[in-house]
Input
Amino acid sequence: MTALVQAPSLGGRMRALGRRVLMSEYLILYLCIALFAGLYLVVPKIASPYNIGSLLSNMWPLFVVAIGQTFVLIIAGIDLSQGAVISLTSVVGASFIAQSANPVVFSKSPLWGVMLFENGAILHDSALGIPVAIGAMLLVGLLIGALNGAAVAYARIPPFMVTLVMSMFLAAFAILLVKSENIIELPNAFHAIGQEFGIGNAFKYFSVAMIMALVLGAAAHFVLGRTVFGRWLYAIGINPRNAAVSGVPVRKVIVLTYVFSGFCAAMASIIYTARVDQGRPTLGEPFLLDIIAAAVIGGTSLAGGRGKILWTFYGVVFLTLLGNAMSMLNVPFFYVAIVKGSVILFAALIDVARRRILLQGT
Output
């Protein structure tokens, strides 16, 4: 006599559906589509060509720096110094190529007479000025990342403490270098990095920043999904001791991960500095919350061992769209911070729920 198989109840089916939606890799993409559709009903101009161009322009540098944060979060770390790296490298790059400098403003700066002069920065009239400035920005980002990684991997200082202290030091040092002043009048060729371009009369959706972001994103996606180094990152995030026993060079991988994070922050600084057309010692200060939020909202786990570049891209789109919507709706600044903080908390709760479902399934 065969046993009757009881059909699942409506509540059981709804719970199963909820789990599938929660565990879906495209959850944030679905939310982006729903958010855009809902906003379009309230503010139709959000779909205008001009606003779409503005959204894309804001997305690329945030995506670049969030890629580095994603790598760090995968190994169960965190990099709170990325915003300060953006600020310091902005000043460093501008100090090579500024077309002029006011002695009244910069006479007390440590850079005056060394990097900055009344007729311009040290390489303001050199064909090598922009390549050297960009190289210096990337080198500073790499060195700061190496310091962070060494402190975490070899001194075994918690990454939160290491990068928080580094952030405070770099932010203060950037302000000290220019005495809280912005280095203005950068070359047009450098400014073009942050500007959009089009073909003929087509609306300008393309930019050097977009190319930089997509190339970096594709390379990072390949590393995580198709290389041994990518597998090492996930293994360290899940259990560093087991990873070490399995032959993973844990310390070296941690250092390289933070080096990459610093590199991404410096690349983002190039784009942001080109967009504002000045070296600004507080340039990265507003972006720290957005950087971490973009990765976490996309689905990268704060506990490590889980994350993808495509997820981070979805998180960047969602966060940029949310910020754009609040700007168009004239939401007061303090409410913007509250909303973003609430979104991060919601993303963290989703991460906890996902990990519980995974544990129940094992």
Q: What stands out?
A: The CA atoms of residues 83 and 287 lie 6 Å apart. The chain has a mean pLDDT of 88.
